[in-house]
Amino acid sequence: MKIIVCAKQVPDTNEVKIDPVKGTLIRDGVPSILNPDDANALEEALCLKDANPGSTVTVVSMGPGQAMIMLRECIAMGADDAVLLSSRAFGGADTCATSTTLAAGIKKIGDYDIIFAGRQAIDGDTAQVAPQLAQRLGLPVVTYVQKVREYKDKSVVVERQLEDGFEVIEVPTPCVLTCIKELNTPRYMTIGRILYACESDCIKVWNENDVELDPSKCGLTASPTNVLRSFTPPPKGKGEMLSGTVNEMAAAVVAKLTEKHVI
Amino acid sequence: MAINIIAEKCKGCGKCVRDCPFQAITMENKLAVVGMACTNCGVCAENCPFGAIERTESSMSNVDISLYHGVWVFAEQREGKLMNVSIELLGEGRKLADQIGTELAAVLVGSEVDGLVDELFECGADKVYYADAPELKGYTTDGYTNAIYKGILKYKPEIVLMGATHIGRDLAPSLAVKCGTGLTADCTKLDIDPEDKKLMQTRPAFGGNLMATIVCPHHRPQMSTVRPGVMEKPVRVPGRKGELIKLDIKFKPGEIRQNVLEVVKKVGEIASLSDADIIVSGGRGIGGPEGFDIIRKLADRLGGTIGSSRACVDAGWIDHSYQVGQTGTTVKPKLYIACGISGAIQHLAGMQTSGYIVAINKNENAPIFEVADFGIVGDLFKVIPAIIDALDAQEK
Description:
The complex is a heterodimer.
Chain A: E1 2-6, E2 9-11, E3 17-18, E4 25-26, E5 32-34, H1 36-51, E6 56-62, H2 67-77, E7 81-85, H3 95-109, E8 114-118, H4 129-137, E9 141-151, E10 155-162, E11 165-172, E12 176-179, H5 191-199, E13 203-206, E14 226-231, E15 240-241, H6 246-259
Parallel strand pairs in A: 1-6, 1-8, 6-7, 7-13, 8-12, 9-12
Antiparallel strand pairs in A: 2-5, 3-4, 9-10, 10-11
Chain B: E1 2-5, H1 15-19, E2 25-28, E3 31-34, H2 43-47, E4 53-56, E5 71-75, E6 77-78, E7 81-82, H3 84-100, E8 104-110, H4 116-122, E9 127-132, H5 141-155, E10 159-163, H6 168-179, E11 183-187, E12 189-192, E13 199-205, E14 210-215, E15 222-226, E16 243-247, E17 259-265, E18 278-282, H7 292-302, E19 305-308, H8 310-314, E20 335-339, H9 345-348, E21 356-361, H10 368-371, E22 374-377, H11 380-395
Parallel strand pairs in B: 5-8, 5-10, 8-9, 9-16, 10-15, 11-15, 18-19, 18-20, 20-21, 21-22
Antiparallel strand pairs in B: 1-4, 2-3, 6-7, 12-13, 13-14
């Protein structure tokens, strides 16, 4: 089987702090990581490969050159090779244009059996790119996959998470599945694979010419949505710190909430 | 829009390199260079002390946007019951439609859900577009995408709003690509530009650290998904009527590729955080899954429901449906009591618009106190019983 995984390098938004005086983002020391949901997607692909010897796992990412590090991590986890779609022409892409570029890259790889992606990336949290990619490739999509029940000859049976349960869906392959953290626990990199990932030239870098994409069809110029402005959300004003013994503070908060008719 | 560096004005100070939230700018030979990680957020342009960074608009679409009229709300129903977020969106959609001076319509998709049409009129819809087919009984990506796409193609709405539910977030991207238009996810605020009547869509990004206002200037419809629990429900007007328009929907064999074999409901308690008036939430400070016992006790005493920070969900202490925050549920209760929650930005993003916030935490420097109306520094295992005692005492 030929398995494709879509991945993104993201800043670890859990580590981002706000400068309390200036109200700006403090990004010093914020590490770049493999997007968490994408790690689940890769793990699922690797499990499928383990169960089907002779399969290959190819990771595809769109991003700047520094995303190579993330792709090497994917190789060190067990992916066979990777493609980085990188060019200034791809820059400024919204989700719509990103899906066009990824689709072009995946078409060039060609001949795939299944595509896994993370549900969403933690820097944008949009969850849009994978379903958009599926639409562009003409493939069926199932999002929020929490479990793969069975890989059949020409289809796959998965559980799709809902707010109040899940549904069991069968889709024909090839298809796009977006993965959530409930699906699995991503494996660690191994020493041997890390050495291999550092030394081998299994990562290709493709630009718009390589994937035969007109520059007007990618990046900013092909993005229907534009950021009008961005700002750090104004912090809500700090309230009152209560003081006294535990019982005094408890009585005070109950009295204050009662006074405001909240309870 | 694009970010351009004006070489003559750039002094190579490096401020933009530090300010850029996406690490997209580098300094080469004392000149700022914008890399492909740029999202055109504009932070650099606003902060450049020398005015050396400009944002320019690039226009690129041959869509005649003047043909598109009306605001559509996807009336998401499950088993014949409208989702709350759809009602909230009718409230918001009404305001937007009035500001533009156009009509509000609901798009109802399902099988034999005629009974919901009147409810949609009473909640403010002037028109209801109704796609009724046996294949649409349950949600499928292909079925719903194709049905609504046909409606959009024929009736050309200028705005389409959907709830950012597990269904809305699956449907919207497929639909947007089919329509060849843009989509903004998980909006928390919508406005109409008073000058050109365009939709201004504001959403949190970067884990809630940054808010971005996004426009879709040259493509139609302008599409957004909106977080549940953020917009206000309209006042229902009993007996209000409107126009019902049936969409002609027929499916070819094999057109719907997702075959739903079974729907499994979670047994036991389901968190319905977005509707709760009072939420008592536990964080890492509760120490373990059994820590939710005391949280639940206070919630029960107040007639509220319990919530959780991401840390507890990640640790497997509680189901993810209880998670409040950027990647969980956005809540706006009258009262939010945060117990043992430090207040990571992604958590604050999901609860800071609550009516009143009470924070209980051992660490007096915890960021949660920055948004709290009332802060108590102390051990939650002592403070919560004391609060319950105080409630009991007050009742007597």
